[in-house]
Specification:
The chain has 139 residues and is of the alpha+beta class. It is 45% helix and 12% strand. Strands 1-2 form a two-stranded antiparallel sheet. α1 runs antiparallel to α2. It starts with 8 loop residues before the first helix and ends in a 5-residue tail after the last helix.
């Protein structure tokens, strides 16, 4: 979710974005079933990780896809996160463009270089999906 886990931004996201947007979707008579998880972590050396800071708050919002309100809710929550300057996890359900992924993950070029090594050893099918090609994760 956010780099600034040393601030009140993660809690503000829940209070200022999640709760009001969920209420908006409910007012449209669209049901949803979701859970919200906030996890504080330390830094990692993984190239494409969101945990690049000493304190990172990763927010996870997942739901039951059979409810008509889930997609509209996730769309407005993603827009709200972007408006607050939060990162959106490139590996979860999102509407990120290749440019947004590249901007959020500065080590993407190094990651692509490492992926080339796996591909050279014949392991391309293990790491390639329509999504990874769409958002530019592949070399």
């Amino acid at each position: 979710m956010r780099a600034g886990a040393d601030t009140d931004a993660p809690v503000r996201f829940i209070e200022d974005v999640v709760f009001p947007r969920a209420a908006d979707v409910l007012r449209q008579n669209l049901a949803f079933g979701v859970y919200v998880l906030m996890r504080w972590t330390g830094r990692t050396n993984a190239l494409l990780s969101v945990q690049r800071w000493d304190r990172t708050c990763a927010g996870e919002i997942a739901g039951l896809k059979r409810f008509a309100g889930l997609r509209p809710l996730l769309d407005v929550l993603e827009a709200g996160a972007k408006a607050m300057g939060d990162m959106v996890h490139r590996g979860q359900r999102n509407n990120l463009t290749a440019a947004e992924v590249a901007a959020a993950y500065p080590d993407l070029l190094i990651g692509r270089s490492r992926l080339r090594q796996f591909i050279a050893f014949g392991a391309a099918e293990l790491f390639s999906t329509c999504y990874t090609r769409q958002i530019g994760l592949e070399p």
